[in-house]
Amino acid sequence: MTEVQLQEFKLEPDSELRFEVESKNEKVVLEVKSGYAELFGTELVKGKPYEFHTGAKVAVFTWHGCTVELRGRTEVSYIAKETPMVVYLNVHAALEQQRVAAEQENTRGPVTMVVGPGDVGKSTLTRILLNYAVRMGRRPIFVELDVGQGHISVPGTVGALLVERPASIEEGFSQQAPLVYHFGHKSPGENLELYNTIVSRLAEVIAERCENNKKASTSGVIINTCGWVKGAGYKVLTHAAQAFEVDVILVLDNERLYNELKRDMPKFVKVVYLPKSGGVVERSSTQRAEARDARIREYFYGKRTPYYPHSFDVKFSDLKIYKVGAPSLPDSCMPLGMRAEDALTKLVSVWPAPALAHRLLAVSFAAGPDDHVLHCNLAGFVCVTAVDPERQTLTILSPQPRPLPATVLLLSDLQYMDNH
Ligand code: ATP
User: Fold this and answer.
1) Which of 249, 146, 252, 247 shows the shortest CA–CA distance to 202?
2) For the chain, N or C: smaller number of CB within 10 Å?
């Protein structure tokens, strides 16, 4: 048995304790002993133990000073005095002023997009700004456009949440009733046409919802994006900025991207350059793949609060599975009036086969394949855990008991090995 390590840290005002949990099956417990501290914008309760597991990379920040205890084995743990938190707080204050103005003038609150290359802390800044807004009594909308390392539903989707309370320290933002659209790949580059289509659709639906929810509308929107910022990745960002009619773009740690956006965005869009935190940890492609896997596992089995998914068989003949995107033909071969890119958003019927094993299937709210499927949001996901060609059945892991709703299922590229 390994000895439980106990470390105590005294933090001065405006400093943060950074730690990482690396070893397999490791658990580290954090407790604030005195003073006040927050974790990515969520206040920590004094004397309450918080658990962190393998892969966690954490910063406990304090504005006023505090004492913190860590129990368990951390790979790295140190106090940093240099952080960009004051700059981030100023951004929050500026957004808050715009919300006050929106309330007084009965207009829309600030729509903010966070951009930057991989591993600069985009998701973390998004979380901090949402937490600060909701702590001020606002109800902002969180939009996740990162299909690879997103924080809503499972990877391979874009989505939105109305944030009504700060993110839970261990579980993130509450995932009740998110608005989710199917993409099915882990990078926008795998089908740019489809990506732009669903981003535009999400923007449209959010604009409609804001018309009926004044509180959300004045609180504004915070959009997290992918770390792909060059070439076609840049075009994807400018398309999203246009679709959401953004007011503010926060550029983390990339002067080239900042200058390009300054040049290309209309004058009324404020493009702001922000430093990244020295604490942001770079992740290898293996770590990214593990993080995606962990998100899918959490979707079915929960994180701190356990979920109990159902497993059952479904007959091939009872399923309507489609994938999005037919192979594209040159324009000269297309019927008159159709573009080659249109093929990329077409539904193609998929007959169940052993190759479906371990793949995720999105359960669409669309009633049938002609029902504007890409414009319909998702009810959720199931995972194919086994395929039996003899009995002509699939075994399905599902958050809901049988039967599967008799709707359209959309095949995702993402896989999950269920060995729970
Ligand atoms: P991606 O390109 O994958 O979307 P990102 O730019 O959104 O990445 P984050 O996910 O915000 O980056 O941060 C990367 C990792 O660094 C996360 O695990 C996060 O918890 C950690 N992290 C962020 N800020 C700090 C900090 N100040 N101290 C320690 N760890 C941090």
Assistant:
1) 146
2) N
Helix (H, G, I), strand (E, B) or coil at 316: helix
The tens digit of pLDDT for each residue in 133-149 reads 999 999 999 999 999 99
At 126 the three-state DSSP class reads helix
DSSP secondary structure string for all residues of 225-270: --S--STHHHHHHHHHHHHTT-SEEEEES-HHHHHHHHHHS-TTSE
8 Å CB contact between 308 and 391 = no
For residue range 343-395, what is the model confidence (pLDDT) as tens digits?
888 899 998 889 999 999 999 988 888 778 989 999 999 999 999 999 999 99
17 CB-near residues (< 8 Å, 6+ apart): 9, 11, 59, 60, 68, 70, 77, 78, 79, 80
Count Cα neighbours of 36 within 13 Å in the Cβ-side half-sphere: 7
CA nearest ligand 1 atom 31, residue: 280
Checking ipTM against 0.95, whether it exceeds it is: yes
Cβ count within 10 A of residue 19: 23
Q: Is 15 in the pocket of ligand 1 (CB under 6 A)?
A: no
Residue 38 three-state SS: strand
